[in-house]
Fold:
Amino acid sequence: MPDSAKYIFVTGGVTSSLGKGIISASLAKLLQSRGFRVTIQKLDPYINVDPGTLNPYEHGECFVTDDGAETDLDLGHYERFLNRPTSQANNVTTGKIYQSVIQKERRGDYLGKTVQIIPHITDEIKRCVQILGSKNDYDFVITEIGGTVGDIESLPYIEAVRQMLWEKPKDTLVVHLTLVPYLSAAGELKTKPTQHSVKQLLEFGVQPHILVCRTEHELPVSVRTKIARFCNVAQNAVIESIDAETIYDVPMLMMEEKFDEVVLEKLGVDASQPRDLDKWKSFLERYKNPKTTVNIGLVGKYVELKDSYKSIAEAFNHAGAENETRVELDWIHSEDLNKDNLKERLTGLDGILVAPGFGSRGIDGKIEAIRFARENNIPFLGICLGMQCAVIEYGRNVLGHSTANSTEFKEYTPFPVISLMAEQKSITNMGGTMRLGSFPCEVSQGSKAYEAYGTESIDERHRHRFEFNNEFLTEYKEAGMRPSGINPDSGLVEIVEIPSHRWFVACQFHPEYKSTVANPHPLFVGFVAASKEYHEEKSSKKQSKEKVAEE
Ligand code: GLN
Structure:
């Protein structure tokens, strides 16, 4: 089938962290709102094969796709904006490119040729970009190139873009995201960094078609004219990207700048189909006009870097909007929690979430937080390690096995209530070897999970090695912890609950990965609803107490 997709590359200049992911996702949203089929891909110039082995402090959360790819967190934004799943093909790293080229070399595919960056590495990059467009699934493939133009490691990617522009001039477009800083001492917006960064691209043979200029102040016409003139772009192709109150405003701001129209015009695509952004607007309306606020404690060990829990924070935004509630997150470092400060630190919260994680650092604080939520009937959601800790806590404090533990933290323990999955026991390589991606789960009727999902059959994404040890299942059930979600193929426990508690749900999978603006995740929606109810109950109790005191 001929490749009819249009390719849009998004590069970044001047500094990192300008928000290429959000700009790419916003453009995709606008194109999608006109009825086009769009996907977004991220090329990461680092040598790791995937971010699965990276510590969250490096690049934030590792996002997991349905097909089990461990990817950059930007893919989370793509899914949240487009409400479409991404896959292995949507995240490519230098490590993956080299791995594939070296495998081909070992197989003898290059027939004795010297294997070089050009053409072999650049060909592989182009192949990975065009895989997405080749199946006729998409009208547009937006490819975000990680890093900043001029970085040594991104050079082969820019060269691949140059080649694609040469090979498919009508179907390829380059958007360059740059910064227009404001110098307060001079009281002026400065265009020079943008000029330099476009010059740098030109040195590599790439003339960007559109410049998206990140700025803290509106760009006056004079500044737009200057940028257009010095950077060889049309004036309407200088797009202002002013700092926004929330990332969800960016598609609307880009619409006002007619970003998608300029893109369509440059690619010779008919732009007459109007945009349908009604759903998006109604989300924004609810998100920005909450009727109440709930305070939810997020207990984790990477809270210094909030990007480590990006999908969780965004899932709360979606679920908050759904409940017409603002979710205020209280980021609590699990290492700072102990028996002495627990009450003081956690009292007043309307809900407690214990986050995913690996290794034993901060475990005691997590277990204490769960005990506090359980004993004080505070809504609780545990995710992955959060569920494992909930099981350990119950084992220790309700079943009375004071040494109950996960074999991740103590290899030999008399009560291994969480243990390594059988298929994991022989694995020695760390990369890509966990239980990854989407697995089915059967939810029991009458449970809180069923109430939230409204269905028995669900699919959720996983990323872990350890699991609930079914040898202890009967004991837990008898003591009041209910397995409310089970994998129908393996019998693995995927959700546990405490029916006697107002809302205590913990899951082995990661619901946050599947929450989108159009489809807020049911468990987050249920958790926020329970927290809201608890909050209201506390307020009305307080009010009636005050009334009694007055009388
Ligand atoms: N450390 C746990 C495991 O590997 C949980 C992982 C997680 O929270 N993603 O099973």
Observations:
- The mean pLDDT is 94.
